[in-house]
Amino acid sequence: MKLSGNTILITGGGTGIGLALAELFLKEGNEVLICGRREEMLLEAKKKNPKLHVKVCDVSNENGRKSLLQWIEAEFKNLNILVNNAGIQREIDFTKGPADIEKSVNEIKINFESPVVLSALFTPLLSGKENSAIINISSGLAFIPITIMPVYCATKAALHSYSISLRHQLQKTCIKVFEAIPPTVDTDLDQGARRARGQTDFGISAAETAIEILNGLEKDEFEILIGGAKFLMNSSKTDFENTFLLMNNR
Ligand SMILES: NC(=O)c1ccc[n+]([C@@H]2O[C@H](COP(=O)([O-])OP(=O)(O)OC[C@H]3O[C@@H](n4cnc5c(N)ncnc54)[C@H](OP(=O)(O)O)[C@@H]3O)[C@@H](O)[C@H]2O)c1
Fold first, then answer.
1. How confident is the prediction along the chain (250 residues), in pLDDT tens digits per residue?
2. Which of 58, 102, 136, 141 could form a disulfide with 64 if both were Cys (CB 3.0 to 4.6 A apart)?
3. For residue 50, how far is its CA from the centre of ligand 1 (angstroms)?
4. Ligand 1: distance of its center to the CA of 133 in Å?
5. Roughly how many angstroms between the first and final C-alpha of the chain, as a whole number?
6. Which ranges constitute the DSSP H helices of the chain?
7. pLDDT for 28-37, tens place per residue?
8. Domains defined for the chain, CATH in brackets
9. Which atom of ligand 1 is least distant from the CA of 185?
10. Which residues of 167-188 are buried (b: 16+ CB within 10 A; e: fewer)?
């Protein structure tokens, strides 16, 4: 797909991979819109990149999603690319019973329900536009779960499955459906918990991840596998078992 001249919405674009994508898309000559819940992060991103358009919005909330669409219909009718990037990651211990359930409900809403509903809401706007696309950011953990974050991994597995079906359904339209599949990336995602469990490898940078995603988009690779995610997705049954044990028994 063409990487310039687009109007692109990136959910959760105020930090991490979303912000790195926003900066790269700006450099390539696109109009870029970002949204997130924390106004201060959006304003900080805009201070660094004055051409960004920002909107405070909680994509897990029905009213938030509707007001996002209204803003775009009123001011950015040319929008042709939606990047479903907003996400959270939580450790959830089911041996405690329902204590952690609240966290997991929210995780399902943000990581899975939001991309599903947003793609439905935005499909009419994207239809008929040149170079239109939906880009879902899933994870290598869609393929081999880390069991301390069971709901996170399941939401990403669901997003992978959904991306395949959506791509197939929308092939009758001009909207291409991409899935970017990062490995561990050094961002704020669940950073406190990563440090608390003594993790020392924080992965590749958000900037490197964004470069890989744009390279994949340019080549029309519908499943953009980055770094270690290639191994996780393509592992044999034996690789799966060995890697699962390695990832979950440290
Ligand atoms: N880091 C990794 O190792 C890794 C690996 C594979 C995949 N990913 C995926 O990459 C995506 C980006 O994560 P990241 O690593 O860049 O972490 P991040 O820096 O924490 O970015 C997540 C962004 O999502 C926004 N967000 C969260 N909930 C939201 C909501 N309800 N409405 C709107 N925005 C919301 C956050 O902003 P607010 O809190 O201000 O709303 C934040 O800007 C996620 O989908 C994540 O699952 C990350």
1. 999 999 999 999 999 999 999 999 999 999 999 999 999 999 999 999 999 999 999 999 999 999 999 999 999 999 999 999 999 999 999 998 888 887 777 999 999 999 999 999 999 999 989 999 999 999 999 999 999 999 999 999 999 999 999 999 999 999 999 999 999 999 999 877 777 777 777 899 999 999 999 999 999 999 999 998 988 888 888 988 989 999 998 6
2. 58
3. 22
4. 20
5. 41
6. 16-27, 39-48, 62-75, 101-108, 114-126, 150-170, 191-196, 206-218, 229-234, 237-248
7. 999 999 999 9
8. 7-248 (3.40.50.720)
9. 3
10. beebeeeebbbbbbbbbbbbbe
Atom of ligand 1 nearest to the CA of 42: 40
Catalytic residues: 152
CA of 177 to the centre of ligand 1 (A): 20
For 11, the enclosing helix (H) or strand (E) is strand 7-11
Q: Is the pTM of this model over 0.90?
A: yes
Token couple for 137: 């950011």
Q: Is 87 in the pocket of ligand 1 (CB under 6 A)?
A: yes
Q: Quote the pLDDT of residue 250.
A: 65
Pairing label, strands 53-56, 133-137: unpaired
- Residue-wise pLDDT tens digits, 108-139: 999 999 999 999 999 999 998 999 999 999 99
* Atom of ligand 1 at shortest range from CA of 84: 45
Residue 209 beta carbon below 6 angstroms from any ligand 1 atom: no
**Is 9 close to ligand 1, i.e. is its CB under 6 Å away?**
no
User: From ligand 1's centre to the CA of 49, what distance in Å?
Assistant: 19
